[in-house]
Amino acid sequence: MVEDEPADVELALRALRQAGVEATADVAQTAEEFTDLVRKNSYDVILADYKLPNWNGLESVEVLRREGLDVPVIVVSGALGELTAVECIKQGAADYVPKDRPARLPESVRRAMREKKLRADHKRSLEELARSNQELEQFAYVASHDLQEPLRMVATYTQLLAERYQGKLDADADKYIHYAVDGALRMQKLVQDLLAFSRVGRHGVPLRSTDCNVVLQAGLKNLQAAIQESGALVQHAQLPRVMADSSQLVQVFQNLIGNAIKFRGSKPPVIRVSAEANGKEWVFSVADNGIGIAAEHAESVFVIFRRLHTRAQYPGNGIGLSICKKIIEQHGGRIWVESALGHGSTFKFTLPVKAITPQGERTKHENHA
Q1: What number is the average pLDDT over the span 136-153?
Q2: What is the mean pLDDT of residues 221-231?
Q3: Which of 12, 159, 168, 335 has the most CB within a 10 Å radius?
Q4: CATH number of 6-100, picked from 3.30.300.30, 3.40.50.620, 3.40.50.2300, 3.40.718.10
Q5: Is the domain covering 124-199 a CATH 1.10.287 domain?
């Protein structure tokens, strides 16, 4: 209790005990006493008078924040007025109970303690989920890493079988060898993709001020062969600087533009990359004129290994967008798609505004082959 009147301490404790609350209390009259007590002991709730001779009891909220403690503070004071009472709640108090209405105190304390338990349970659930995800990623990394060597052996020797005995056995044997080679190579690619996915964010890299124009050019350079083969036109406006891991951001642009090229329609791909500020975040867009995505698949395209087409139609294992999602979320952003089947797609993702963006006219650049 933050209180300088012993009689008020006794009144509050009596009201709690009469309502069946088993209550004991330490009393502090100054900020120094309060800080010393919360560092030494664990408390369920703080009852704080609003105004003491040398201290405002509401400041106990700030002390608890500085100490990293989640203890509800209930302001128990004389008449404060409606505006002051609301301001107490805004500043972090759990409730306000007038001293002349002690009967309200027990329920206020019980409610504050219930809410504290809910917060603690939620925090524990999040920690358990994070630990479970970390263990799952560790398992995926170890499993995919350790599978690479035996799969390499299987793929190598089945390819040797195909080279040495193709056409020397009957048609069924040739067919079986083909299936074995194809299956081994697909499994090898799946394991490599799974390893790539599990590696994202495993070793934290400090985020640095990153020019997205430079990052985009690196991604386009990696896609040069696909751009030339498809006749793709990639346009982009002036992009901002953000705080990011540049190598991971290259993967995002490369995957999104690569998908726009892969899932193209009958016309050459036209892809537009842009970004605009929206409050505390940048919203990036990668728009194309491709085959589009049905509305019911707008969420599932980001699920790892989820494919909407057969491998005969479009190659790949369906991991690129899940890697993009993981990277963007680890940067504090989110990613989604706006699309309609047959009318192209616009993939959008956000990154926090944490770097100063050079001011200047938005210009358009083109990469065309």
Answers
A1: 74
A2: 90
A3: 12
A4: 3.40.50.2300
A5: yes
